[in-house]
Design brief:
This protein is mainly α. It has one domain: Aminoglycoside 3'-phosphotransferase, Chain: A, domain 2, CATH 3.90.1200. It contains 9 helices and 4 strands; from the N terminus they run ααααααββββααα. The protein has a two-stranded antiparallel ribbon with strand order 1-4. Strands 2-3 form a two-stranded antiparallel ribbon. α7 (about 125-135) runs parallel beside α8. The longest helix has 17 residues, at about 15-30.
Length: about 210
């Protein structure tokens, strides 16, 4: 056990802190690929959990759904079925990166509390982190960092993060649990009226 002299990121999240954390996740991925220990894959660990869009698609008039999600629920559910294949990899993942599991120190960012560790693609970490940032951020004054600020490992990652934030902006914070229901972590042929003005991101450009 080690006593770390640091503090959690400020809430609401600040862009400079997000940049520090994303850069730290990039460095962590480099150090933890291949995974230094044998653990279950992310698909084995979360196959029963990342089913939110499919569950919601069976009740498309659920009053927790925002209008954009209602219009595209079938597409979202179909995309969700592919998450395990896209998230496969051999990086040791934390899978619960959020403010209270991070310490900012004079020497950098320390990621603590690893009970949900597993193996998968490195870009999964900031994708899973995005809904936590959305729930703890002032959307009106916030713009998600684009690729090159720790988001460049996969073309779909910026989209996933901004989609999360955009849906909260349209739906309101009371519906953010629906946004976090599933993880889509791949280059996506996304519908063009995605909140925030997002277009098809298959070429890796924002």
């Amino acid at each position: 056990m080690e006593d770390v002299d640091g503090h959690h990121p400020a809430l609401p999240w600040r862009l400079d802190d997000i940049g520090l954390v994303l850069a730290a996740l990039d460095r962590l991925a480099d150090a933890l690929t291949p995974a230094p220990v044998t653990l279950p894959t992310i698909a084995e660990k979360y196959s029963a959990d990342f089913t939110g869009w499919r569950i919601l698609s069976k009740a498309p008039n659920d009053d927790r759904l925002d209008p954009w999600s209602c219009r595209h629920i079938e597409q979202l559910a179909a995309l969700e079925t592919t998450w395990a294949a896209h998230a496969s990899g051999d990086t040791l993942l934390h899978t619960d990166v959020r403010a209270d599991n991070l310490l900012l120190t004079d020497g950098g960012v320390v990621v603590i509390d690893w009970p949900h560790a597993c193996r998968g693609a490195a870009f999964v970490e900031p994708v899973i982190m995005a809904p936590c940032v959305a729930m703890q951020t002032n959307i009106e004054s916030f713009s998600m960092p684009r690729a090159g600020a720790g988001l460049g490992r996969a073309p779909g990652i910026t989209l996933s993060a901004r989609l999360t934030l955009g849906l909260r902006a349209e739906a309101g914070s009371s519906n953010v649990d629906v946004v976090a229901g599933g993880v889509t972590a791949a280059p996506l042929p996304v519908v063009h009226d995605c909140p925030g003005g997002y277009n098809d991101n298959r070429d890796g450009k924002s």
